[in-house]
Amino acid sequence: MLEIRDIAKTYPTAQGPLAVLRGVSLDLAGGTSLALTGESGSGKSTLLHLAAGLEKADSGHIAIDGAPVTGLDDAGRARLRRETVGIVFQQFNLIPSLDVGRNLAFQARLAGRADPDWQAVLAERLGLAPLLARYPEQLSGGQQQRVAIGRALAARPRLILADEPTGNLDEATGDAVLDLLLALVAESGAALLMVTHSARLAARLDARAHLHAGRIGAEPVA
Amino acid sequence: MTAALAQALASYWRRHPLELATLLVGLMVATALWSGVQALNAEARRSYAEAAGLVSGGARIVAADGQRLPLSDYVALRRAGLRVSPVLEGEWRAGDVDLHLVGVEPMTLPRGAAPIGEEAAALPAFVLPPGRAFAAPATIARLAGRPGLPELVASGQVPEGTLLLDIGRAAGLLGLPDRVSYLLAPAGTGVPPAFADRLTVAEGPADDLARLTDSFHLNLTAFGFLSFLVGLIIVYAAIGLAFERRRPMLRTLRALGVPARGLALALLAEILALALLGGAAGMAGGYLMAAALLPDVAASLNGLYGAHVPGRLALDPAWWLAGLGIATFGALAAAGDSLWRAFHLGPLAAARPEAWLGALRRRLVWQAGAAVLLCALALALLLLGGSLLAGFALMGALLLGAALLLPGLLALVLAALGRRAKGPVAHWLFADGRQRLGGLSLALMALLLALGVNVGVGTMVSSFRATFLGWLDQRLGAEIYLSAPDGAAAEVIGAALATTPGVTAALPIGAARSRFAGAPLEIYAFTDDPLYREGWPLLAALDRPWDRVAAGDAVMVNEQMARRAGLAPGDALAIPTATGAWETRVAGVYSDYGNPEAQVLAPVAQVRARWPELELRRLAVRADPASVPALLADLRGREGVDVTDRAGLRASAERVFEKTFAVTLALNTLTLIVAGIALLTGLLTLAEQRLGQLAPLWALGLTRRRLAAIELGQAVALAGLTALAALPLGLAVAWVLTEVINPRAFGWRLPLLLFPLDWARLFLFALATGALAALWPALRLARAAPADLIRRFSDER
Ligand SMILES: Nc1ncnc2c1ncn2[C@@H]1O[C@H](COP(=O)(O)OP(=O)(O)OP(=O)(O)O)[C@@H](O)[C@H]1O
Ligand SMILES: [Mg+2]
């Protein structure tokens, strides 16, 4: 499903180039989930962005369902994000001028896969049903996060990339959201790559990877 | 603390140079347009005052009929013991230089009444041939080497184009040996009863000129003010944005212990510093603008009113101070709202910029309420106000009300379109468009005002042009018009023409002068002919009006006079003459565009009966078109005869017309450009924020190119909708101009004609403005690096 080979990424900074990823490889099969951990600033978000085609890697190879992501042009990567990938951003990135209902449906409609029944189910399961007519600025952080998750799932993507999707949620809600994500993976055969700081949540996923010093290492000894 | 505070506040401008530039450009443009127009007005007024102030002091005794008075009256008054001094003024040509001559009598002239020097020793040189004349250095330079002139002495007190000389010398040059323009008398002098039927004490000529030109200057001022407002809109937007962006910092400063008063004072000081900077730059721009427009203003004042304004600017310190003052005032007015909010900002206030949704809705409601109030005010002014000032107030209320109504209207239209939109992107587009109204509404208001005024003024000018040219063709019925040096010469030419083959008629024309209702009046003496009966454009008349006029029972009056004095056909009329009032009636009212003065049309015999010295110096010649060229060549060969054919007259009238509106149209265009700048700066200052709003869409799978296209399309659509709203506003403006302002300012009313092609042009201009203003932000978006877009995510929260 998702195949990452020897990815390297360096950012230019005022203090010289900053090598964030130095040869990262990962494999994720359809219907399975992987927890990505690592200390703050270790490059977890960067790796997700590369997998989603938001940014280009300096070297290495990424493929989704066997189709290469690296090497796609701008339009190709835009189509990838639109149709294949569902991203839950660390900073939500809801569209401020649309209400919750529209935000929820937005990506699915972009992908041409709008399904009102499925959206209703998602809204119900994410506890968003009473909030559909509100605007993002009128929501709490956790509510916004749930809208962002719903938006990613509404399009039934093949690959779900979630950047700390439960970071702003209380334990119970976080568990419920993870249940939903895992159920979806099991049902639809999609793959889930999830960044998390919580060892407890990470333990519930099929596999774990730890990012340290630009490489995937063994899980830290807890 | 002060230094730390200043540093914190200034750091914003350092990091956002574009917004600093926007603010300064807005201030500069506002100040430049306002002070430029003021400079033009001041220059013109100064030259009127100079012309009037050359001979000053005491009272002026003039002839009741407005003509020059005979020298014998002067002698008689002196004998009666009055300490009067004669002055003779007139126009004279030295080669190709037009001069205004002012002749004074140095022996009787009150001390200091005219700048001819004080030493008695210089007197003989002034009086004795060849005489001595005082003139401005520039005049002397232009006259260098011309023969037949007195000795010229430079004087800073004499206006350009004027010679101040002995009355005897002036009488010789003007060919008026026994005439006096007016008599200077000590203040409080009354006219002795024996002269009361012929002489009267008058206000200065400057008052006449000032009154005539007042409406012209009021028009200029109104335009200057409009541009000033449009410029301030830019300033207001920039300051408001800076405040919103700095709100978290301001709140932190408050939390760290800066008192509210200290914070407000610091912001005030910042505004004042910026106002001085932008104001000073604006004054320089205003000077350049005034210098560029002055020749046109001078030409139109000359063409319209015969007022002589020199084509150079001389500005006094008061102008600079006033300009900086208005810049400061404008900046404070634009910043007042932000300062108020800074003063009331608590240390725990929300750090986030005010939520757009509720704020926008509240603002729209508030604005719509204010707009309704303003429209009510406009209606009240229309129904109750009668003055020109009330007319301009009506215009102001109309424009402001329309501007305030615009954002609400656009929001409604976008919401309606959004409900019909299909597809997520279209949906988002309309919702987002509504949100953007919050940031762009001021720029769109500026665009609406500029477009509305452009449609209005353009319609007025085009209507006027069409009406004026049609009227001119009617009015210029004769093939040739000529003017001879005097009545006798005109008679000789007329007699010769009567027997020339191809000539159908040679109709003598003369003019006498009087005063009516406190203003100058011209009595136009004509010779009855189908030329007048068929061609003269009558607005209202009794039946058989020309028969009544020919019979001497009535006269025709021009529209200006009828409007000012409230005269209608059939009304009685008393015109002052040297031998008492001429009691007559109004037979009809004719349109007389472009003439600032009241005019009466009467047969030669009637006029001559009251003004025995009336000279018929002009002739209207009707001729077979085929013989016109030969006739023209023959007439032009005669000494001292000024000949114009119909085409030439029409062309010169058209030229005066174009000059008159050149300034209006130039200011019109400038306002439009300022509105374009307002939109551009509005989009530019929001571009940064905009990237953050568009980044999520990009992340969800819209290409940058598509987003850029959407961005461009949205700006074009907003500008287009604004242009659509500007059309009805423009028609309302045109209506107010032609039905309210023009009749009150100039004394004539125009039919309102529509020119849809001009509207189409303006509409395209609006679309192009929107596209141009959005081009740079869109290009930036299309080229934005993905890393940059990703970083926006974290900025947004
Ligand atoms: N555009 C950029 N330019 C320069 N450096 C960057 C850029 N984006 C990220 N970085 C740096 O790259 C490193 C990895 O960032 P990234 O956001 O991937 O970390 P992360 O593992 O997601 O951290 P966190 O757990 O705090 O979210 C950080 O040191 C960050 O400062
Ligand atoms: Mg991260």
UniProtKB/TrEMBL annotation, chain A:
Signal peptide: none
SUPFAM superfamilies: P-loop containing nucleoside triphosphate hydrolases
Domain (ABC transporter): residue spans on this chain: 2-221
Keyword Glycosyltransferase: no
Record key words, sorted: ATP-binding, Nucleotide-binding, Transport
Cellular component terms per the entry's GO annotation: plasma membrane
Transmembrane segments: none
UniProt name for this protein: ABC transporter ATP-binding protein
Organism from which the protein derives: Amaricoccus solimangrovi
UniProtKB/TrEMBL annotation, chain B:
ABC3 transporter permease C-terminal domain ranges (all copies): 222-345, 668-785
One GO CC term, this protein: plasma membrane
Protein name (Swiss-Prot/TrEMBL): FtsX-like permease family protein
Residue ranges annotated for the MacB-like periplasmic core domain, each copy included: 442-636
A Pfam cross-reference name: MacB_PCD
Segments forming a coiled coil: none
Principal localisation: membrane
Transmembrane region(s): 220-243, 263-294, 318-343, 364-384, 390-417, 437-457, 665-687, 708-737, 759-782
